[in-house]
């Protein structure tokens, strides 16, 4: 009798003993948010005020708002994210139910025929009503920690869903403005093709009048075929973008979406809030924080798995040959059992499981710190780019205007024999290149503004 008791006592003491500990992490320093954004300068100031929660309206695009609403309703990836949230909720419900007793009840009836020792047959009835309950007492808050971990993970998945919703809105918006820019690029290519056709007529007239030789004619025809190829490429690219956008919307990718709005004008600056606000607003940071907390709770659960567990088992019921007696307390039978269990020969395995959970908790801590740093970098990058993108648009607008004027003048001078074909072709190519780059710069500026809203944690 003494030996089993000693084994049990040794197991309990072993379970209570401290496990191996991870070495302290001295490299993951706590990041303290700055007072203000470093990318904000006197030339690149942001407006004071809270971060906007209606940034879609800043682009004044009713069609875009409709497309975002359609994507939110029909996008398959977002539906999967929502299902993940439902699944996490059910997992949390299961964890919560572990704190409650398991109660089962049943009723049975039995009719049997038997032969007595005197060879006489007899028929007997037996009716039974029974209820049993098993409840594990949460001695060390192990079950409570499991519940808190599951609830915390549900909150993390909810934050994932918010992040997916915001990312989808931003992706739809950027794809939409890329499609608008692609349409403008196609229209520019069509304009350039028409301009080359008009220039061909001018060269043909001068060639027929003997004012230029065949070289001019060949060069302008080369330019014309290049414009035809460019237009085909632009149309193909436009269809690719439309199909990508239609896929985000949950539609069949048929490149049938109509782009009817021009590129919007955007303001000079937006409220960027304080760096410290970022930790509260961004759903990816919230999700990472929740997972970090849940990982810590899981590590505590793993440590408490090495401790004894205590459960109570109760059962009771009635049994009688008469059905009417099942609710008669005179026929009541019951039992109560207390059960204390302790893992005896699995301590090394349980220690290893605890260590694995603590490693995962350390990984979650490091990952959370990295996500915070990445979030700050994304805001700083977007703020910095917003300033320089605006300067690019201004410079390319001036260059496009000057190039257009130069191309018109070059054609006039060529018609009058005041310049050669190479000057004309160069002026035309410069005009097209600068206007094409201007269109792309405007789209880049708008897309970066969307990225900035997303980085700041702004909703829509």
Could you please describe the fold and organization of this structure?
Belongs to the outer membrane factor (OMF) (TC 1.B.17) family. InterPro entries: MdtP/NodT-like, OMP_efflux. Pfam families: OEP (PF02321). This is Efflux transporter outer membrane subunit. This protein has 460 residues and is of the alpha+beta class. It has helices at residues 2-16, 62-74, 76-97, 142-208, 214-248, 275-281, 283-304, 347-415, 421-455; strands at 102-115, 121-137, 309-320, 332-341. It contains 9 helices and 4 strands. A 4-stranded antiparallel β-sheet has the order 1-2-3-4, with no helix packed on it. α3 (76-97) runs antiparallel to α4 (142-208), α4 (142-208) runs antiparallel to α5 and α4 runs antiparallel to α7. The longest helix has 69 residues, at 347-415.
């Amino acid at each position: 009798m003494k030996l089993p008791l000693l084994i049990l006592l040794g197991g309990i003491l072993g379970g209570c003993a401290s496990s191996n500990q991870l070495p302290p992490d001295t490299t993951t320093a706590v990041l303290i948010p700055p007072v203000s954004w470093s990318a904000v300068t006197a030339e690149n100031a942001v407006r004071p005020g809270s971060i906007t929660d209606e940034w879609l309206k800043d682009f004044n695009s009713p069609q875009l708002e409709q497309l975002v609403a359609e994507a939110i309703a029909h996008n398959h990836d977002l539906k999967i994210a929502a299902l993940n949230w439902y699944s996490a909720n059910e997992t949390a419900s299961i964890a919560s139910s572990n704190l409650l007793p398991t109660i089962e009840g049943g009723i049975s009836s039995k009719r049997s025929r038997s032969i007595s020792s005197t060879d006489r047959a007899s028929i007997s009835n037996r009716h039974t009503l029974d209820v049993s309950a098993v409840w594990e007492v949460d001695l060390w808050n192990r079950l409570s920690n499991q519940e808190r971990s599951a609830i915390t993970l549900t909150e993390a998945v909810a934050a994932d869903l918010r992040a997916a919703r915001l990312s989808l809105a931003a992706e739809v918006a950027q794809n939409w403005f890329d499609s608008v820019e692609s349409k403008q690029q196609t229209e520019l290519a069509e304009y350039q093709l028409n301009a080359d056709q008009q220039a061909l007529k001018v060269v043909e007239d001068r060639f027929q009048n003997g004012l230029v030789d065949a070289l001019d004619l060949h060069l302008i025809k080369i330019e014309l075929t290049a414009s035809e190829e460019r237009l085909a490429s632009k149309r193909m690219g436009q269809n690719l973008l439309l199909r990508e956008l239609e896929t985000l919307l949950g539609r069949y990718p048929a490149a049938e979406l109509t782009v009817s709005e021009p590129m919007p004008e955007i303001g000079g600056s937006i409220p960027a809030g304080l760096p410290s606000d970022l930790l509260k607003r961004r759903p990816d940071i919230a999700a990472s924080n929740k997972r970090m907390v849940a990982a810590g709770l899981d590590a505590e659960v793993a440590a408490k798995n090495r401790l004894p567990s205590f459960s109570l088992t109760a059962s009771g019921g009635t049994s009688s040959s008469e059905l009417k007696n099942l609710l008669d307390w005179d026929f009541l039978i019951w039992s109560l059992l207390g059960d204390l269990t302790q893992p005896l020969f699995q301590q090394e395995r349980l220690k290893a499981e605890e260590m694995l959970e603590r490693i995962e908790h350390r990984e979650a801590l490091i990952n959370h710190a990295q996500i915070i740093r990445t979030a700050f970098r994304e805001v700083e990058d977007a703020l910095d780019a917003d300033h320089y993108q605006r300067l690019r648009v201004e410079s390319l607008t001036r260059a496009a205007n000057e190039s257009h004027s130069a191309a018109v003048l070059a054609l006039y001078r060529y018609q009058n024999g005041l310049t050669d074909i190479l000057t004309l072709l160069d002026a035309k190519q410069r005009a097209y290149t600068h206007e094409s780059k201007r269109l792309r710069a405007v789209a880049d500026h708008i897309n970066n503004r969307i990225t900035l809203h997303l980085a700041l944690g702004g909703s829509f």
